[in-house]
Amino acid sequence: MSDRFAALGYSASKLKVNGTGACAAEDAPEGTPLLVLPLQRCWTAAAVDTECPQVSQALAKAALRNPDSELLQAASTKIALHLIWERRRLSNSEPMKEHRKQHLQLLEGRKAETLLAWGRRDLESLTGSFWLEEAHRRQEDVVADLESLLADLGPEVSCKLGLVKEEDMRSLDEVPRASLEAFAWAQCILQELGLHFVSGDQLLAPGLELLGSSQEAGTVLRLEPSFQGSPAVVLYADRDFKAGEGVRLWHHGLACSQGFQLLMGLGDFKVPEKGAPVATTGPWESVEVLLRLPVSAQSSESSKLWSIIEALEAALQASRPWHGGLLLREAVPPDFGWRRVEVIQKEDAELEVQVRLPLGRSLPTPEALQQLGLLICADTERMQTIMREEKGVLDPLGPKACQRRALQQLGRRLQWALEDYPAHALVDARQLSPAEGLLPRRVRGLLLVAAEKQLVSEAITVIQQALQSDLEDSQEAHRALQGVDDAEASDAIARTGDSRDPEGSGAMSEGIKDSIYSLDWDDGAEDGAELTSKDIATLPQFRSQGQPLTHEPDSPLKRLRKGGTCSRGHTGATWEDLALETVLGFSLPALCDVMWRVEPLLPPVYTGSKVMKPGYVEDSKTGLFPAIPKLYEREPSPQRKLALEPAKPVQAPPLRWALLELPGASSPVPEVLAALLALGCEDGLKLQGKLMVQPSYVHRLASGAFSNAASPAKVTAYDVLVVYLEGWLGSKPEQLCVDLLAALQVLVSEMGQSALRVVLLSHLSVGPGSLRGREAVSPASAALGLVRTARAEVPQVPILWLDTDALDGSIQEQLMYEVNLALPPGGLQNASSLERAQGLMAHNREVVYRQGRRWLPRLDLSPHMPVYAGRAAALGPCQASKGPQSREAQVVGPLPPHVTETGVALVTGGVGGIGLAAAEALVELGMRRMVVTSRYGQLLDDGKRLEAMRASGCEVIVEACDVAVESSVRELLERIQVHGPLRVVVHASGVLEDAPFVGQDPLGFRKVFEPKALGAWYLHRHTMQDKLHSFVLCSSLAALVGSEGQANYAAASAFLDELARLRAALDLPAISVQWPAVDAWSEEPEQHGGAIWNGLTTGLEKPGSSISLPVVRQVVKLVVAGLKPVEPVQAVLPGAYLSPTSLTVRSMLAPLLARKPNKEGDTSMMLASEDKQASGLCMRSVKLCLQLT
Description:
This protein is of the alpha/beta class. It is about 35% helix and about 15% strand. It contains 40 helices and 34 strands. The chain has a 17-stranded mixed beta sheet, with helices on both faces. Keywords: Phosphopantetheine, Phosphoprotein. One of its GO terms (molecular function) is fatty acid synthase activity.
């Protein structure tokens, strides 16, 4: 017998260990026991009772105190604690059994490769996969289980069992790192090497890790209840082996998908050659799909519902590859015993059925699909909708109808899942894979994602084919019943087309569309008949809660043309647009007013040692402190903390404040200095290459005593830094941004792991009332875009911007109220890590105080809505006589003749990107003379679009002009006067020079800022005497929500927004449009190609984050010739922006999202793929802040 296996406790072995694994020591015919390990030599729950009674007794006593705890009674808990116990004895060189010692030494030399051991960057490679969520859940479970064990066992027992070191016993407010590492190590071992059997036994067999695993191993592992008189784990030869032939391990516990292989640290992942797909040939390969189905109260009380759930569970289990092939003594797959159907009670006491389906190349069984189709009808409202939509279907609760309904639901869910997968996972895996050796974790994760994406595409194709086959059968039956002649039948089939898409991209939506249009059409309806509001309300919708998109014979869909547009009243709107209106309350993309709104004050959570009276603002409707959404969940953390003695009330210390002066800033006014001193702010920090501190600087400044003595500052000594944003008189508009950028970069580099809050304090610089009496844009306004980008890129430095009109003691109250509002309940001392991180995130916001009232930035629908790309809403003089138009078509009126016939339009940056699309829109509005500029007067393309504009009757002149130079702008405007009076200005010039926030420099900042911001300012200054009809500025959503790598561009865009507000205050025409990414090549609203921003790539690839050229043209028409008054700043929001990733953006969107109809089960198709995140917090930001706290 091999010495290696004998040392591990094996009673028989016909194997020997070599450098590559194990091989047969002698010839072994089929059925020969190759390895025999007595059960008593394994790590089992029974072994804990005999070898480690301390663990067994401690768990038994804890279970008496907490009998409902499954963790205390689980066999895996006993085995894990046994491993930790013996590992500690080994490290202390205590005497122990030899076979335990040998196995622990073997385990110590292994590197854990389970997902429990993967770091954050490794797990990012699983983006889009179900296993990313599962890995996070398992990692969180390890922490939660350990916390629960420490709380149940107590500190002294935990120390005796080796869970806690003696030096850590006095500071157990949080789980000691050493304890977490030890417990995670044991869980990794069990997850990778643990065995579960049909009989319910769970064990860890030493030595099996010496054998590699393979499905073609030719071995089989069984737990024999009696082998030579005692129970044993036996590895049998399942074929003949020759001496020296390699032997590998196989049992049903290894029969799992690649996702489980990663979870268990197993698997032989290989990178396919270029052009070849990733291998997904395993019979167990599948993708987990989660369906959430609501259940109405009436259905939950019906026994029929529970019988459907049981039948669905049984059908799904029966469809598993290993079903029926397991013996009582064999190991089971890792998903054995998983509940595929679970009933969850939500917070509102309503029930939700969660169904997990493993989908691959084959569909679930017909029985499973039938039960799923019935379960979809468990919600009363959905049932009524289904019966209305399927009233032309015979037996809607029969097997065929239910199966079709289930397939449609699965198809939609898979289509959403497909959009979550990254586009280039396989390409990235090839680039990152080494030439030889074990593949890195990131590469294995990318291979899994690529395999899953391929499986999802194949599953979509299989579902399409099944639906298509069912559709053809239905058409045959329909023709037989209605007597349709062959020609009509051929025409119906021709309209259906082939919906199969071998690439899996967009296949499901197009297939369902084709299915709809191929069904029964009403020949009696006139082509072009208008849709009524009642018709629109009954349109079938994509719904995440399971409402199938099927045909209703009397549906208004039959009046829609095949091209996807409807007639006169909704020209340009696709049928998806109309369906989304009834779900969201508005169509996409959403054109929004960007404004400030009064918000009532919230009661403070924690006020430290000072008394706070925030009730000096009263809401006229609801009184003090109405119930409005809070910044974040203020419930105390549910985690159980270990305390050695009863907790005593602690008076949290006050926050440590300091003043940070920027180079160009003026000294704070006396009222501000008094407020800072009242808050305990005395030290002053200055930026002199690095941060320098002057103790008692604020006190000396208030008393008129000055000193230049300074020493290097330690940022960690402060909790709050106040930056006074006043001054910079006579400086260039971007100088404040450059100084603030430098200060924030230094803070990021010097703060280390400290938690620091920054407060920007300004006086009537931004917000309502800030433009009164101004003739120039405030220097601080551009910094708004810079700050919002900083929040997105460096969330470890949360920034609160407070602008006030107060010059009295109210400044102190406002400062303290806003800072305390984001502190965790109970103060920083008693808060958990998550609460502290949430508090840091909640600190990010802009607040404006005017006469004691609190204003916050908000977005709401523009009066110009809806924006339908290609909508025929521009009315020229020749169109006015064609009869009355619909109400929606009249949001854009004709431009007056003095604008179109004799006037001139100027479009800077008009040779490409948004500028060229804006020029085309102006031509469609009737402009006859147009000047488009670029820096050197050169075209970005072949000029075909400009030639098309000229062919339509518009005179187009291309001029060279560097708008960043004032003299160049002045000369351009003088040349334009030759062609006629200037009537329309569209400023779309701009360049990009992206760089990380900490890598931005003044030169690159000005390179981007000047042509966009200063160019707009020069156009404003030198056209104030012109009788302009429109002055349109092309801003960016980066100024609203921030954009990583574009702090300079966001600042310039914020300057444009404030310039538009300034012109409006001066009673001059102005609209600033915040654009998202624009697809340069897409002429269809639903197509997505390369995203651009003013002609340059942005890198935005997320579905729903960009708009098409027709949308750009339509928005330009609306802002130039709109008939309704709007806010001077308009934002164009694609669907992706309605899923906020930060608290700041979520609060901005509150009025917009509140328009969603409050119907049970109604959710947006676009938002459905984001529901799984559900927290509303940017998780990347929270994790960064958790590191700080």
